[in-house]
Amino acid sequence: MLNSLILFGGEPLINPEIVEFAICYARSVFRNMDELNIAVATNGIGLNTRMTELFAKYNVHVQVSIDGGPELHNELRVFPSGQGSFSGVEKAIKELKVRGLSFTSRSTVTELNADILALFNVLSPLGFSSLNFQPVHGAKELEIDSQEETFVSSYQKVVEDKEIMKKVVYARAIWDRVERGLKINKFCGMGTAGLVIAPNGDVYPCHRLVGQEEFQAGNILRHVNLEKVKAIGKKLPVESFPQCSFCWARYLCGGGCYAENLFENGTFSAPYPLRCKLTRSMIKKAISLFVRRRRDFEKGIPVAGAEGMSC
Ligand code: SF4
Fold first, then answer.
1. From ligand 1's centre to the CA of 254, what distance in Å?
2. pLDDT digit string, tens, across residues 208-231
3. Ligand 1 mean position, distance from CA 253 (Å)
4. What is the pLDDT of residues 100-159, one digit of tens each?
5. pLDDT attached to residue 253
6. Would you list the DSSP string of the chain?
């Protein structure tokens, strides 16, 4: 059952007519707003009044790419003219606020912005309802190897502060699993809960695999090979990954991002060391915080940020 539609690129707002058509068509099929979540991931540059009105009317969530404050963002995201694009993002955020839309951030983390806590402190005041930090892959000169310790330790500090953690997507997901005792055996819904359609109609199990011939599963204009997608999904349970099957954190981690595993090791089933280290250390931190808070709670000691705790 389809329950979400995400439009992303490249940059989807480069073709606003298609975005408008897709949203209107989806809403004409799923008239009840709760039946289908629609989201657009954009760099913000094409977010004009017409678009934000459309998003407000059809309850579309917006994710804006932003890599830091003005100086850093302008260095990393540049127009062909050489001019930085931060002012375009600021304008987009203003438009979104005027329409009362909630919006999240997506930052590509490189060696230049590896301190997640510092990044959070710059971006959060801009009004994002949640923040998503993703380490870069495929740009060797920017990968965070030299800043790995900063990246991991700052992510741990995010888990330590409940108010910050609630807004950081990956930290919150891990905390929720620990707090609610949730068990997962897959990192994401690849092969079971989603399809990606490329601009030419080709179908893939994950957006990060677009263009990789061996994972293409047909084309929406001809034939979609769902069996191929499902067959990929069947190979992904964490118990079947040699290195993960003995890991104590496996049911809170799920085996790591399959695309990252593939890019790093040539297979979905061998963890990407950076994600593995990050996840394990965050889970450790979340468990020790949970145990400490639970002890304090049982002793009647007031627990800071414990509103909504289930213990
Ligand atoms: S923490 Fe690492 S080894 Fe453990 S399940 Fe996750 S990716 Fe696998």
1. 7
2. 999 999 999 999 999 999 999 999
3. 6
4. 999 999 999 999 999 999 999 999 999 999 999 988 876 667 777 778 899 989 988 898
5. 97
6. ---EEEE-SS-GGGSHHHHHHHHHHHHHH--SGGG-EEEEEE-STT--HHHHHHHHHTTEEEEEE--SSHHHHHHHSB-TTS-BSHHHHHHHHHHHHHTT--EEEEEEE-TTS--HHHHHHHHGGGT-SEEEEEE--S-GGG-GGGGHHHHHHHHHHHHH-HHHHTTBHHHHHHHHHHHHT---SSSS-TTTS--EE-TTSBEESSGGGTT-GGG--BBTTS-B-HHHHHHHHHT--GGGSTTTTT-TTHHHH-SS-HHHHHHHHSSTTS--HHHHHHHHHHHHHHHHHHHHHHHHHHTT---TT-TT---
pLDDT digits (tens, 9 = 90+) for 272-295: 998 999 999 999 999 999 998 888
Determine the distance separating the centroid of ligand 1 and the alpha carbon of 244, expressed in angstroms: 5
**pLDDT range class, residue 303, cuts 50, 70, 90:** low
**For ligand 1, atom 2, which residue shows the shortest CA distance?**
276
Mutate to test the pocket of ligand 1, among 187, 188, 241, 244 (most ligand atoms within 8 A of CB): 244
Q: Average pLDDT in the 14-24 region?
A: 94
pLDDT above 90 (res 88): yes
* d(CA 240, ligand 1 centre) in Å: 12
- Cα 185 to ligand 1 centre (Å): 11
Ligand 1: atom nearest CA of 283 is 1
Q: Which residues contact ligand 1 via a Cβ below 6 A?
A: 238, 243-244, 247, 249-250, 253, 255-256, 271, 276, 279-280
